């Protein structure tokens, strides 16, 4: 398994209400379920590690959106029109994409550290020696 995928699994295991299962016989790459007050992520075990990483990041974003949505609903019990519900759903999807990209960036940054291993180049293409 890749190191990035291992870090994502370790990150998900820290959540007390989240379980990750690898299944052999599912028709999709992965999905999120909410059952009995706990979230379950099911990932197809037969796909490559790169695809597992991308699916896990996306599903973790969906998990974060649902937890955020539950908190918002608990605070404000307002009725929305159909148009407002569609707009809110589109905003939520955009939030999931931004969250997933940031999560992947932060996990990769922690994986590779803050130091860049290749030398910086100047505008002429030469290596800067300073």
How would you characterize the overall build of this protein?
The longest helix is centred in the C-terminal third of the chain and has 31 residues, at 82-112. It contains three helices and three strands, in the order αβββαα. The chain is α+β, with helices and mostly antiparallel strands and 130 residues long. The chain is globular, with a radius of gyration of 19 Å. The N and C termini lie far apart (39 Å). Helix 1 runs parallel beside helix 2 and helix 2 crosses helix 3. A three-stranded mixed β-sheet has the order 1-3-2.
Q: Radius of gyration, rounded?
A: 19 Å
Taking pLDDT < 50 over at least 5 consecutive residues as the criterion, the unreliable ranges are none
Average the pLDDT over all residues and give the rounded result. Answer: 82
The rough form would be described as: globular
- Total strand segments: 3
List the helices and strands in order.
Answer: HEEEHH
**What fraction of the residues are assigned to beta strands by DSSP?**
5-15%
The structure class reads alpha+beta
What's the arrangement of strands in the largest beta sheet?
A: 1-3-2
Helix content: 40-55%
- How far apart the termini lie comes to 39 Å
């Amino acid at each position: 398994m890749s190191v990035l995928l291992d870090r994502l699994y370790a990150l998900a295991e820290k959540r007390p209400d989240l379980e990750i299962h690898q299944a052999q016989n599912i028709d999709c790459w992965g999905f999120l379920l909410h059952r009995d007050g706990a979230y379950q992520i099911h990932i197809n075990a037969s796909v490559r590690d790169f695809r597992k990483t991308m699916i896990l990041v996306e599903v973790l974003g969906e998990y974060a959106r649902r937890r955020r949505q539950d908190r918002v609903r608990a605070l404000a019990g307002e009725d929305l029109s159909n148009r407002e519900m569609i707009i809110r759903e589109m905003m939520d999807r955009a939030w999931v994409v931004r969250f997933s990209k940031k999560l992947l960036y932060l996990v990769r940054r922690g994986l590779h550290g803050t130091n860049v291993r290749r030398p910086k180049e100047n505008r002429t293409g030469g290596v800067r020696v300073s």
